[in-house]
Amino acid sequence: MINSVSLSPQxxxxxxxxxxxxxxxxTHVCRCNCGWLEHDAGSGLYTLTKAGVYKVDVSANVSLxxxxxxxxxxxxxxxxxxxxxxxxxxxxxxxxxxxxNFALIExxxxxxxxxxxxxxxxxxxxxxxxxxxxxRLC
Length: 138
Hints:
Strand 4 and strand 5 (about 45-50) form a beta hairpin. Strands 1, 2, 3, 6, 10 and 12 form a 6-stranded antiparallel beta sheet that branches. Strands 4, 5, 7, 8, 9 and 11 form a 6-stranded antiparallel beta sheet that branches. The protein contains no helices and 12 strands. The protein is mostly beta strands.
């Protein structure tokens, strides 16, 4: 299991990924070359390297520099995982709201998938207290 966080505010441009500054929890099977996960602290990419089913949980506080819509989503290999969109409307600039969602991601034998949290909206999003947890279920 891995749980990564990014407490400091960051501006995530449309089409870019939320970056996770550090890992709060990282179990032994995530630390070695024989494990099932590749992630560099400060990156927004998590590569699932072994066959199985993984649960990905995400939450964050989001806002905009002006009123509008924020749209984040969990992505696998650069494509939005259906049903994982996190949408909210910001009425007042810099007024933060909490969003969250989860996904089950299946990795087939002999393949891998890269998971991220992306700004799928059309404007830059302000993101803080971002949190992602990935657990291999089987």
